[in-house]
Amino acid sequence: MLQRGDVVAGYTIERLLGRGGMSAVYLARHPRLPRWTALKLLGPEMFADSEIRGRFEREAEAVSRLEHPNIVAVHDRGLERGAPWIAMQYVDGPDAESATLPPAVAVQVVAQIAAALDHAHARGVLHRDVKPANILLERGPRVRALLTDFGIAQLHDAATRLTRTGTFTATLAYAAPEQLVGHPLDHRTDQYSLACTLFHFLTGAPPFPIDNPAALIQATLRTAPPSLRIRRPGLPPALDTVFATALAKTQAQRYPSCVAFAQAAHRALTAPVPGASPARAPRHPAPAPSNTRSAPPVSGGPGAPGDVVAPSRDWTARGAKGRSTPGAGPRPRWYWAAWGRRRRTTRR
């Protein structure tokens, strides 16, 4: 394990950001530019494994084809004393596996990752390991999610057919049925994993949270996805229909793209619930007629300095013999002047 101040390929190590099964990622200072870099190093115990080394190098190759605001960028790669390294964009923020997201934010995050995946698919790259741990959430006033870890990505070869390895390396709980049985993969494979990821965001676990690998594989291949509302009551019923499509066992039954799935999830989350009556204003009896008049402002508009504000309490106007008129407000001066003239005229 590297220590602070160690130098690798000119990058000065600051601290460890994270460690996986085959590599470690360090925060490092760029040798020539005033910026931080995420430096990914293959573990020494993996040097002799040609397949793992090939996957590590393929990540840089795959991401170098992509330029998208929601994909962690690769800046450079190389060898240092026989050890391969990749210099990547540093994202200041946690991964989404440990984040608690409100439904609206979860759908927004998935929409950004969906756009990143469609961008990759259009350039012949399948991610094949979409899951919350491979989504980074950048700190800031606005939600920004970035997809990372293209270590097991597949690339189109010259004949536009997908290359395949003989080993399974994706995370089981988010893997599509076709990945488990060795069938050909396409862009809808990543869509299935993205749907599992949104399911996790909304309920706290993937569709089939089963520890036993054999039982998990059987559930993925044969069992319909559970209702969201069983795990989180209050979510719109329409979301179940969206997940039934995105988590279909066969690719042809899923949405045509990741963005189409994200849009359907957004519509389902924001649509009115069928059968629910729209909110109405409470009905109150009409107020009794009042003769209350507010004094006009002396100058300026409402609330301007120097304005005269009418009294707030309910004053009671009194008649000639001192009787109270319930509900009546104070009479202005012109009223009493006119009343007095009418009274004098009547007495005559």
TrEMBL record:
SMART domains: S_TKc (SM00220)
Enzyme class: transferase
UniProt xrefs under PROSITE patterns: PROTEIN_KINASE_ATP, PROTEIN_KINASE_DOM, PROTEIN_KINASE_ST
E.C. number(s) listed in UniProt: 2.7.11.1
UniProt xrefs under Gene3D superfamilies: Phosphorylase Kinase, domain 1, Transferase(Phosphotransferase) domain 1
Protein kinase domain mapped to chain residues: 11-269
SUPFAM superfamilies attached to this UniProt entry: Protein kinase-like (PK-like)
GO molecular function terms noted in the UniProt entry: ATP binding; protein serine/threonine kinase activity
Record field: compositional bias (Low complexity): 330-339
Catalytic activity annotation: L-threonyl-[protein] + ATP = O-phospho-L-threonyl-[protein] + ADP + H(+); L-seryl-[protein] + ATP = O-phospho-L-seryl-[protein] + ADP + H(+)
Positions contributing to ATP binding: 40
Pfam families tied to this protein: Pkinase
Keyword Transferase: yes
Top-rank lineage group of the source organism: Bacteria
UniProtKB keywords: ATP-binding, Kinase, Nucleotide-binding, Serine/threonine-protein kinase, Transferase
Region entry Disordered, spans: 272-348
Name of protein: non-specific serine/threonine protein kinase
